[in-house]
Specification:
Helices cover 35% and strands 12% of the residues. It is of the alpha/beta class.
C-alpha cells in the first residue's frame, strides 16, 4: 500500500540519519513471498529501516530476531497495534526473540508470550539496532 511504502521510506531515512549514513545513495527493492498480497500499515517499517542500515554498515542481523514498530522523528521506536498477533506470527515462524515498542497501543491489552519466546521492549533506534545486531548504531571513538 502507499501508506506502507511511505512508512518504510521514512523509517529508512530516519535510521540512516541516526547512524550518520548518507540517505541519498540507496535503492531498496522489497519482495514479499506471497504474490498478490498487499502490505498495509507501518509495523514493518522499523525492521526494514534498520535492516538497510545493517547492510550499509556490514553488521549482520542475529538469526531468529524480529522487530515490529515505526521509527519516529525523534529517533524512538513507535507503537503499533496488534502486538499479540505479531508475537504469535513470529513464534510460528520460529523466531526466538521479538523486539517491540516499549510504549504499546493500550487497545492491545495484556498478551501471553508463547513458551520459549522472548519479547523485549525497546525505546530507541539504538536499542532496537543493538537487539537485532549486537552492535550499536553509531560507533563511538
Amino acid at each position: 500500500s502507499l501508506f506502507a511504502r511511505q512508512s518504510i521510506h521514512s523509517a529508512i531515512t530516519r535510521a540512516l540519519a541516526a547512524a550518520n549514513l548518507p540517505a541519498d545513495s540507496w535503492t531498496v527493492l522489497l519482495r514479499f513471498p506471497y504474490s498478490g498480497q498487499t502490505i498495509y500499515g507501518e509495523s514493518l517499517s522499523a525492521m526494514v529501516g534498520l535492516s538497510v542500515v545493517s547492510m550499509m554498515k556490514g553488521d549482520h542481523l542475529i538469526a531468529g530476531r524480529a522487530l515490529t514498530g515505526t521509527i519516529t522523528e525523534r529517533g524512538h521506536i513507535g507503537a503499533v497495534g496488534g502486538l499479540q498477533l505479531k508475537i504469535l506470527a513470529a513464534y510460528h515462524n520460529h523466531f526466538q526473540r521479538v523486539l517491540v515498542p516499549s510504549e504499546y497501543d493500550v487497545r492491545d491489552g495484556d498478551w501471553r508470550t508463547p513458551f520459549l519466546m522472548h519479547v523485549s521492549p525497546v525505546s530507541t533506534i539504538d536499542e532496537a539496532y543493538f537487539g537485532l545486531t549486537g552492535h550499536h548504531l553509531v560507533n563511538l571513538p
